Amino acid sequence: MSRVILHVDMNSFFASVEQAANPSLRGQPIAVIGSKDRTVVLTASYAAKRFGVKTGNTVFEARKRCPGIRFVTSDPDKYMHTSRVLMQLFTRYTPQVEVSSIDEAFLDLTGSLYLFGTARRIAELIKRDVASAFNLTCSAGIAPNKLLAKLAAEMEKPDGLVIIRPEEVPGCLDRVPVGALCGVGPRTEAFLASRGIRTCGDVQRLPEAYLARCLGVSGTWLHHAAFGRDDSPVDPLGVEIAPKSVGHSMTLEADLDSRAQVEVQLQHMAEMVGRRMRSARLAGRTVTVTIRFSSFASTAKQKTGPHPVCLGLDIFALARQVWQTMAMPEPVRLVGVSVSNLEPMGVQLPLFAHERRAAALALASDAVNDRHGEFTVFPAALLLRCQRERTIAPSWRPDGLRQAIRR
Asked: Does one domain contain both 277 and 370?
């Protein structure tokens, strides 16, 4: 029996949530932006998109393309709450719900058809529920696998419903641009175009061995994707692949030209990483520092310590050692800290008194921040940290290690 996969994609999610919450914005060209000077358009309403406003445009570019556009400051908590409720709504129809981003999900409907009838009916019921609960619209794609379901959901926006049946798969991809396949980025698309490969049909007519020589493992994947083959499962809510690293990065409100100022930001990132690691009962040995300069040139270095760490101060100590070995030829625009070589956090009590005090302080701070919000309690050195608007990471999920946002 062929699988039946539904992909649900919310339409202009951030902008639509703002319009649903504020009736005066409905039908208007709006753009959701950050709250600081270095901001760009996060999402534009369809009324704004008709003027050419796109995600990533600066405020100046958006206003130039659409003089009457209205800008709305993003509210991450509102979007995350809406997403969590939506994902729970989807579980009415199947427990097999995989969150692919804050506004997209895959649903395996194979085992639900005998309860609800056809996949089309389930999709229509979900679209009705979304409209009723939030006054939002979504596009839906139904197909035998995740790759094709996502492609189908992209075909008719907004508020579309497209079905690709198993017997239609061989011929439906022939004229689809290769860049429309989820997993093909701009660089790969440009590389293929330089060799005259622009559609999935072009890929189908090439030997798999040729693509493998050009693109390695990705070439083999592309060969199968061009024929609509995808065996990847729908990983249900609550199932999280073991992470290889835990990290945070932040683009700063203003470029920093002092090494001491950068150290403060490193400590800020270290505290955020440590907090997430402790919540997931993880510790790690390798700390990586990523720096992006005002020219947008980036550099990264790492150091492996003798023991696994999960406390902000310990992560910062390694990060500072790394930073002291890095040159600073120009002002710093972005600072990032990540921890890898992860392992489960030990249950043995620290041996020395100062280590026990540090661990107890971290646990007490976590308890306060869990109850009253992030950074209610934090090291005094971070009073001078630079901040930027909170942004939702692309890897955000409703629960587990990846539910954190950048702060």
From this structure: yes
The pLDDT profile of the chain, 407 residues, written as one tens digit per residue, is 589 999 999 999 999 999 999 999 999 999 999 866 667 899 999 999 999 999 989 899 999 999 999 999 988 889 999 999 999 999 999 999 999 889 999 999 999 999 999 999 999 999 999 999 999 999 999 999 999 999 999 999 899 999 999 998 878 888 999 998 888 888 899 999 999 999 999 999 999 999 999 889 899 999 999 999 999 999 886 665 667 888 888 888 788 999 999 999 999 999 989 988 888 888 999 999 999 998 889 999 999 999 899 999 999 999 999 999 999 999 999 999 999 999 887 655 566 677 778 777 788 887 887 777 777 777 877 876 765 556 666 666 676 656 655 54
- Same domain, yes or no: 2 and 52: yes
Domain boundary among 166, 187, 211: 166
Q: Are strands 161-163 and 332-344 parallel, antiparallel or unpaired?
A: unpaired
Question: Does residue 155 share a domain with residue 67?
Answer: yes
Q: What does DSSP assign to residue 177?
A: B
Question: Do residues 338 and 246 make contact, with C-beta atoms less than 8 angstroms apart?
Answer: yes
Tell me, yes or no, whether 240 lies in a domain.
no
Distance CA 136, CA 129 (A): 9
The distance from CA 14 to its chain's CA centroid, rounded to whole angstroms, is: 14
Among residues 18, 98, 104, 263, which one is catalytic? 104
| C-alpha count within 13 angstroms, C-beta hemisphere, residue 295 | 6
Distance between CA atoms of residues 197 and 219, nearest Å:
12
Measured between alpha carbons, how far is 3 from 70 in angstroms, rounded to an integer?
43
Nearest to 276 by CA among 315, 241, 239, 236: 315
The helix/strand/coil state of 170 is helix
Shared domain for 12 and 131, answered yes or no, is: yes
104 catalytic per annotation = yes
Separation in Å, CA 181 to CA 141, 151, 175, 287, 330: 14, 7, 12, 34, 39
Distance CA 121, CA 352 (A): 63
Tell me which residue range forms the domain holding 197.
Answer: 174-226
Q: How many domains does the chain have?
A: 3
